[in-house]
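Problem statement: downstream parser choked on a complex file, so we are re-checking the raw output for the zinc ion run. The parser issue turned out to be on our end (a line-ending mismatch), but while we're here, posting the original submission so the record is complete.
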Amino acid sequence: MKNLILNSIFFLLSFACITASAQNADSIAIKRIFSDALTDTTSYHNLRNLTGHYGGRIAGSAQSLKAVKWAEQVLKNMGLDTVFLQECKVRHWERGEKESGKVISVKAGNHDLNICALGGSLPTAGNGLTAKVVEVKNYDELKKLGREKVSGKIVFINHPADPSLYNTFAAYGGVAGYRVRGAVQVAYYGAVAMIDRSSTTSHDDFPHTGIQHYADTVNKIPALSVSTNDADNLSRWLKTDPDLTVFLKASCNELPETASYNVIGEIRGTEHPEEIIAFGGHLDCWDICQGAHDDGAGVVQTIDVLRLFKSLNLKTKHTIRVIVYMDEEMEQRGAKAYSEAVKGRKHIAAIEADRGSFTPWGFSIDAADEQIKKVQSWKNLLLPYGLFYFEKGGSGVDIRDLKSQGVPLFGLVPDSQRYFDYHHSVNDSFDKINIRELQLGTGAIAALVYLIDRYGL
Ligand SMILES: [Zn+2]
């Protein structure tokens, strides 16, 4: 009995020692990861090239295909074990000439509006349309107005993002639905066009675009976005002159679907090369911007994770793979192609970086409670790098299809306060990127990959 007790104590002590020394080895490895991430400037230069040469790379565009070639070449130059393209069919929507919008009123004056067409919008017919405008804050107000007051008019949906919410993604979530489905809702009552207040928390003169979807059951009408400042102005002018008219012209065009590609690169695992830890961002961005925060940053950060593991000669047991996704913004065809292609292939985890390049806080985790607890047990290793947030929540649009295959999903969560200043507008450009915040994102993802590879989930 005494021997048994002594043996048990010895076992527990040696276990504690191993755990302590493993912790120490991990903290040294993670320190090396962050030192490398914060010292190396490759991702920043990659982002400068991507945004500088291949801005406006919406799926289907010539720019997007050039960006695919660029990403493939970047991965090939890294000397990875495998680099390949994965085909997907994408829509090919074009904005055409810059849109024009004008308020015409004797009482309120004539004014140009800062507007742009929403993604997937139809053009205005002929040389543009002119109509009276009705303003609504939500669908209840629309319903109250009814067909009689809406038919033949432009409906202006003026629903501001809720500034009282701390998380700007929640504020965005509360308004983006009007952008996506507003044209269907207002066309049901006979509207001839929809103008939506830009889905953003900022107050600026720039229209923010984004996808909108039609339904086959109602008339398809042009759908445009107006800057938040001009939304406030238009609302004021409508109070001065409820009979004012607005002229709108959009020349969008939808071409036949075309081929595009995800770009994939990997380093094979030493023990379980058939099992994958995947991470990625999306290469496409809206045609009106450089796509620096959304999502050039996520692309270069996740590519940089592979560079970092090679540079530190950190061998992983499992294959580590970057997926540079195509077509997140319109139809997520790249995401669908990937999740179809990997059915039956085991993914230990999938991580997405698509919330802007701001100071990382941690990860939102879409996985079983036990798996989340395991990640939370690594907190002390990550706190020295500002990472404190490891909570249950959504991951990312491109990886969410992997959930049905039982893959634990992670979304990199940075500070969210400035993201929607830039999101889907001309302001999403390289000059808005802080190199340190970009590098910290690489460090955060690499550290998580390292721990998942070592301890599983
Ligand atoms: Zn994005």
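For whoever reads this later: The mean pLDDT is 96.
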